[in-house]
Amino acid sequence: MRRDGPGTGREWRPLPPTRGGGRERNSRFGPELARSETSSVIIYGDLPKNKENVIYLSNHQCTVDWIIADMLAIRQNALGHVRYVLKDGLKWLPLYGWYFSQHGGVYVKRSAKFNEKEMREKLRAQMKAETPMYLVIFPEGTRYNPEIPKVIADSQSFAEKEGLAILKHVLTPRVKATHVAIDSMKEYLDAVYDVTVAYEGTVDHKGQRKLAPSMTEFLCKECPRVHIFIDRIDLKDIPEEQMYMRRWLHERFEIKDKLLIEFYDAKDSKRRNKFPGKSVHSKLSLKKTLPSLLFLGGLTASMLLTESGRKLYVKTWIYGTLIGCLWVSIKP
């Protein structure tokens, strides 16, 4: 675990490229990615080339954050390994609620209703089946939304009450899901990825945070540049007891907050809209994305171009949603 980052009281210097143990810092994406100068995805830090069983911890601003996890996983050839810890209400999403559940996703309720036993059992079942694990958790529990200041104020009040540092650009993290996941899978995991995401263009002329892009805006409008900072943390550097892990997790979010303060609020304009250290303008090759596009596009088009196909498409959504909702209500 790196000890010279923000929030540690030491000067933060970019890490030089090093080799050893099969890992390489700051040069992980190959020459084809380093050559890209126009990509809207900019990656900093510690993303290994090889697949790993990991827990992915990130700040949460919008639904696009889910796609960011996929973006990183596909760069490790691990897209099919991604599973999510989700708010319980999302299991009622048409089709997707059932899909996430069957693909190893874990639905959790907040606070006193959090079912630790149920989460442990689901994770143990995944390990027993030797399922590759890229488990995405958003510890804040909800999105950081500058248009809902009460949520931010309540989060800061809770931190103050608990004697924790007050955070500006992220919410106070909740530790339960993270603790259960790490504790249940500590012999199965290779690492924890601590990920900080920032979207350019989400500050107004007064320097105030704006709403992060929605999925529709991200896919249909000009794509904002996305900055992704990854810190790969060894399991041995994470405390096991929940009380101490809570403090550790909050310290990780303090680091995120300092990164985002620098990104959005740096007095020196040259230091804004980027994270410290070396970065890679990361661009995916067509061979990683074109086959999926052709398959899904061809399948959807073939259904929508005929009357019988359109009827099948509609029935799939209607009956699939009803069956899926019934399934997750019986076996979440």
Automatic annotation (TrEMBL):
The keyword Acyltransferase applies. GO terms for biological process: phosphatidylinositol acyl-chain remodeling; phospholipid biosynthetic process. GO terms for cellular component: endoplasmic reticulum; mitochondrion. The keyword Lipid biosynthesis applies. Residues 1-33 are annotated as: Disordered. Keywords: Acyltransferase, Lipid biosynthesis, Lipid metabolism, Phospholipid biosynthesis, Phospholipid metabolism, Transferase. Residues 54-179 form the Phospholipid/glycerol acyltransferase domain. GO terms for molecular function: acyltransferase activity. Residues 1-13 have a biased composition (Basic and acidic residues). Belongs to the 1-acyl-sn-glycerol-3-phosphate acyltransferase family. This is 1-acyl-sn-glycerol-3-phosphate acyltransferase epsilon. It comes from Geospiza fortis.
